Amino acid sequence: MNNLSSIIPIHAESYFIVERNGIFNQILKYQYLDPEEYFYKLLHKPREYYNEINRLYSVIKEILREEKVLINGQQVNLDVKFINIDFIGYVDLPYIVYFIKFKGALKRGINIFEDYYDKTVAEYDYEVYWFFPERTKILEVYVDGDYDLVSNNKLFIWVRKGDRMSGCERIVFKLA
Prior knowledge:
Layout: E1 8-18, E2 23-33, H1 38-42, H2 46-66, E3 68-71, E4 74-75, E5 79-87, E6 94-103, E7 109-116, E8 120-121, E9 125-131, E10 136-142, E11 146-151, E12 154-159, E13 164-165, E14 168-175
Parallel strand pairs: 1-9
Antiparallel strand pairs: 1-2, 2-6, 3-4, 3-7, 5-6, 7-14, 8-13, 9-12, 10-14, 11-12
């Protein structure tokens, strides 16, 4: 059996696509350095590959259970819909993609997204992209790292390795 401890997380990115009906679609991608090619070797072993997908599902579900996500003050359930392992052109550079979905009660006017998690220090660089529906205006952003309001309804956040994470994020936005 290969040693999972030799796999090093090197980068992550997350995309949130928010629908007017309150559905939040999140695509979360973690990139790794895998010098022993553990993930690549799974591709030719279907049973072991699916066992690893199931293990990853259990791990991400536990991580998400520890988070508290609120939409307008109401806690929502984060549901993992899809997981895949693939590669960035090299067998020692795998990535894992998660598709996560949740729904909150959005309303016309002011809405608040909040995410609470354990305080930590970023182990690698990562970026978060938010896409809200047309005619949405992002009013307030409280996140760790840096951010840029690309337009009224698009937000880009970046965190660098070593940044301290407070364990709280909040985005206030107005739906027209």
